[in-house]
Amino acid sequence: MKKAYLFLIITLVAWMFACNPNLNDDDVSPDDNNTSSNPQNTNNQTSTQTNSTKGNCNLIAYKDTLFFLENLKDDLKINPLVKRDGEYGAFPEGLEINESHGEINISKSESGLRYTVFFIPKNSKDTCFTHVAISGVDYLSKIYLLDKGEKIAAPIYNNNPSIGIPGVNTKTSEFDDDEDDDNGNGSLDEPLPGQQVIAQGLDISKIDGKIILDNSLRKGLLGTSPKNGSTKKLKLFYRLDDKSGKALNKIELEFHYFEKESDVPKSLKDKIFENQNSHFNPNFGLKYARIFRIFRKPRPPQIVIVGRNY
Known about the structure:
By secondary structure, this protein is of the alpha+beta class. It contains four helices and 17 strands. Strands 10-17-16-15-13 form a five-stranded mixed beta sheet. Strands 3-8-7-5 form a four-stranded mixed beta sheet. Strands 1-2 form a two-stranded antiparallel ribbon. Strand 7 (113-121) and strand 8 (128-134) form a beta hairpin.
């Protein structure tokens, strides 16, 4: 049985290489925040427009690689620098992109993520790649073991854990925004009343967005006495003092509680694994790139709290 399984794997790998004549070393570009193919001046929250493609496949690029939400009445949209016929797509899932002409709706895309955008020219077997990031925060999908001191879920800015949250020292960013008029432009860009997560038991710092998990359980996030397998979804509204001009941003979070790590079902562990891998997947250089986005759904973050003593 083991030999048959090994043979199946070898056959599948051979098929992938055989069916794609374009898969070679020059096509592979790691999807990594530190790669030289996507230099970003993260200290100033700016970026340099660049292609992450190599060789002759440099047919897709946008005016920049890092985009911020803006305080606009209409959706913020961007288009490729050059209009070309073909098929467009992106992974991980969450980027609102037109598959026919590559227009990206920044306002309707999931923020806080870095996407690999691919383009397959019409009547061609080549696949071109570039990267686009939408500024915002994310939280790591993870099993937090309270007994081992894992009690804090911290936000990740611009898909890079090494970058601090802007506006923390000056206390000019705000997590768990309410319906008050923060920027003096009326209430149309404010959350609806009753959306605050603190009122629902989430112990989160309004300054830096850190979530204290054991305190959240004590404050009733998952009920007065959480049952094994309890779960809850929340939508966190926030504003960052960066180039977004404190435009309203949001992220949905999903919390789970289990008494023991062995109680966490395999399906949830698989989802956590999938979410984590979606942030650091390689650029496969395949003409079948559209296949990979099916399995990349990093939202909402799965925050699993494990422990009886809290």
